[in-house]
Amino acid sequence: MKSSTNTLLMAMFELHPKLAQDTFYIADLPLCRLLLMNDRRYPWLILVPRQASLTEVYQLDQVQQHQLWDESALVGKRLMQFTHADKLNIAALGNQVPQLHVHHVARFHNDSSWPAPIWGLGTPQPYQPEQSQNVIASLQQIFADVSTHLD
Amino acid sequence: MKSSTNTLLMAMFELHPKLAQDTFYIADLPLCRLLLMNDRRYPWLILVPRQASLTEVYQLDQVQQHQLWDESALVGKRLMQFTHADKLNIAALGNQVPQLHVHHVARFHNDSSWPAPIWGLGTPQPYQPEQSQNVIASLQQIFADVSTHLD
């Protein structure tokens, strides 16, 4: 994809309403928006490439794919360091929300779904307002050095 | 990670027995072994970086990460072209089999688990011997140009 097309598609980016409803904004990294899922059962971050009309990773050009996965590795590694979790789960599914997004879930051997994948199990438990403020502030600090913008 | 270390870790690679048991060998790509899950409910390919002692993507060095995801994009795109599926699901979980492996599952709006993720749902349905031979042969042809070795 030509870079002028990329620029246009990035200008047209809008977060899917379902993602906007279920998450908190953390930061914009160079390519992706970083979100926290509002479900305190798991430390759960989502990366959304800020480009319109994407459903599959391979629709990004190779430079953007590498950028996406560089951001994914950074987010995954820092999430694991921050949480001291046992395993990281990464997934790009999109069966229910078609906009391309990549889950990063820090898993513990004693979490409520272990060892099953988390999707579709149990009921989300939203953060209490004060909890979410603290978690968001901590995450924004952790990713401040790679953020291009903070709301 | 230094490249001499990578070379040593690649020499030490052995496929996890559970992956060996549940899959068919398709090919070796430059970094990863390509496997077909023996479950005819879904077209389901798995990439396993041929390096010992890996559990997380971010443990690969950046060059290898890019190679992994280049191979993932190629495998995902060709799998979708081959199957005319509706959605690709990509996941690196590893909660049950710790060896780093990346699932690529071609999903259909009328498959048995849609829109849920496939893991942990229902019972695997192994291919009939003749079926598996045909599918393996087709897949080996599709990936012949990027295979470094065929068993």
Please summarize what this structure is:
The structure is a homodimer of 151-residue chains. Chain A is built from four helices and five strands.
What key phrases describe this protein's structure?
alpha+beta; 5-stranded antiparallel beta sheet; homodimer; 151 residues; HIT family, subunit A; 5 strands; 20% strand
Explain how this protein is built.
The structure is a homodimer of 151-residue chains. By secondary structure, chain A is of the alpha+beta class. The first copy, chain A, has a single domain (2-142), classed as 2-Layer Sandwich (HIT family, subunit A). Chain A contains four helices and five strands. The first copy, chain A, has helices at residues 3-11, 17-22, 62-83, 129-142; strands at residues 23-28, 32-37, 44-49, 87-92, 102-107. Chain A has a five-stranded antiparallel sheet. In chain A, a hairpin with a 6-residue loop joins strand 2 (32-37) and strand 3 (44-49). The radius of gyration of chain A is 15 Å and the shape is globular. The two termini of chain A are 29 Å apart. The mean pLDDT of chain A is 94. At the A-B interface, helix 3 and strand 4 of A face helix 3 and strand 4 of B.
